[in-house]
Amino acid sequence: MKVSLYVGDETWTKFRRAVLRKTGDPRALSSEVESLIKDAIVEERVATAFQKMKIPSKGLSSTRVVAVKPSVITSAGSVLREMRGGRHDKAISRQ
Asked: Model's pTM, two decimal places?
């Protein structure tokens, strides 16, 4: 589908520069505009998904998210070493 947009000169110039810095491709403007549009409508898609699951979505806010401490004490370092199969310890002992 072809769509025409009217954007101020200064705004468009800044946007083009930002896209060029980000992608290195001046032809990426359309995909960047599409990405921004998708980001703008994500809230609507989330609300629709909640509605399908019969979960009330009114009043949801990131400010209502409460941090909780894990019930089990963990160490990111030990988990990574375990995931790597002990390779980390062996690499250190060689030095």
From this structure: 0.46
